[in-house]
Amino acid sequence: MPLIVATGRELMAQEIVREAQKQGVPIMRDKMLAARLAELPVGTKIPEDVYRAVAVVLAWVYWMEGREPDG
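RE: above sequence
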């Protein structure tokens, strides 16, 4: 189950993005999805109402890495 692992605004958000880039995490910008997920505390399961948007992000990450999901 996907979880919220970090959240922040302005300078904190910039630091999260910098650290993600340092760790090789692909970055996709989606203001509407980010705003929805930012409402949730860290450690929260991603709610069903945003599964489709999260699935699009995950598909993009797989594509960027030249991979295909298992199954």
